[in-house]
Input
Amino acid sequence: MSFTALARLKKRRLLVRWLFTFPSEQYSKHTYISENALLPGQVNTYYGWQQVFDATAYRDRIKSMSNSSNIEKINYIEGELRRAGLKTATQNFTAISSGKVISGINVFGVLSSPRTDGTEALVLSAPWRSKDGVTTNINGIAAALSLGKFFKSTDYTYWSKDIIILITDGGEVGVQAWLESYHDHKQSGIEASPLFLRSGAIQAAINLDFPGTSNYKALGLFFEGLNGQLPNLDLINTVVRVCRMSSNIPIMLRDSGRCYTHYDSGDYQSSFYNLITFMKYQALGHPTGSHGLFFRYKIDAITLYGQVDASIGNSYGFFEIGSLFPFLFVVYALELWGTTSDDETDLIPNSNHVQSSSPLNNETNVQSSSPLNNETNVQSSSPLNNETNVQSSSPLNNETNASTPLAYLRRPREILMPVAALVISHFAGFIIFFVVKNHFKFSQISSIFGIDGYLFTLAITTNISIIATLSPSPDWVILKSFILAFTAMIISCLSVLNFSLAVFISIIVVIPFSLFQPSTYEMIRYLELIVLVLISPPGILIISKINLEEFLRWTIMEYELLGSYFLPFICCLYWPIILVYVVIIFSPIK
Output
């Protein structure tokens, strides 16, 4: 191995090791509340035991309606909101994703602010089903109804924004249908009835997910959104501060199992796990709750989830939940969201520390520059077809001197076949994308994998057979230079949109793409082929042991109904560059 190649390999190893320093407290800063935000804890709450009794009555009634029809449940929710004094409305929606029909009814009520003209609003939402899609969100809906009644019954006029109580059906599809109708901005194939009741521009949203009827041990915070979007950091910090200072509720980041109490920052292992989990959700572009769909409309949102199986002795119920939200809504109502610090891309290793994403973006940019550097080295090290020396003669005595090297040399480059290989590979990717998203029911979805494999194998054999029959054989160096530059461009652009996905892509492909090339030994070629198969989408799914049918179900649904770009990125960009490298390693050597 040359000195240059060894230096590049050591640089990449150093960059990968650098990632492991991010969870350390030495490289992060303490969380803080922006100077433009009202300090949490400076609000009096009047949520008492009468409201707890109301929430308990709602819980018992919702539990008894488990076998009732959706119409009866919606009528009950709408009737209770109307009796509390809120203006109410319902919305029917229907969506079809890969042959599966998703339908439901959303119901919501609007509490008009006594201090403003209704130009701004806050949303308190609760889905019918919990995030697992099976358990009924009984306590979450009961708490939302009790809070709606409490907000309306109070004689205090500190509400400076309207409050919308939203009960959604059909999971994320119901939230998407309501948001599209509310903003009159149809983006998906969801057919929904129009909304005849609206409020002002939504500034923030809190999603309640408290499944079951028992008490809870900790409060899980879910904040990752669709396509890797994140909320303002003040939104998360306010929840953490209020839970600790006022309600004394243990905090858990997602469902990590690690509870954070007052002045508890955890250890390196838990922080590392939190960062990896965060990067996984952001890279997949999968929203961790119904809140993740609000970010598209510039609305900061978060999901609060009741954790039952946390390893802690204390528990909390309706009183702590109800006491939490008057604090949060007063803070959010008075928050100057337009002037708060822009920390949307910060990483949260634990509840007390935050890590800026700027070093991570720098690391991604350095990783993306590696293919460009390697592309330059490949071009400069390729063999010349012409003579590199010329004979120089003296103008005085017409004697021929020794040959001298040229400063530069123009040489023709055959780019037709490299361009053809790129076009065929990406055309195969578009065909795979079309096959995946069209004309398949969920009962047939497993056969998509076999069809995609057949199309990809056909594209590989077509490329290799065309290249092998050409005379003279095309220069694989040009093809590798093209694909290295293309990979660097993808990683650089992706680091702006979804830096977690850019980091994973750079770690997976940079080293194989930089080192692999055609070899005279067949065994080396097939070893390189095995590595490329393992880092391809089918190989990654097999290694991770993910259920294929379930994975394809939610990726197709999120693309068709929610607008996720993960599926087209994998099919049309990532998978084709793997195919091109398979063509490179089987190219003939000049």
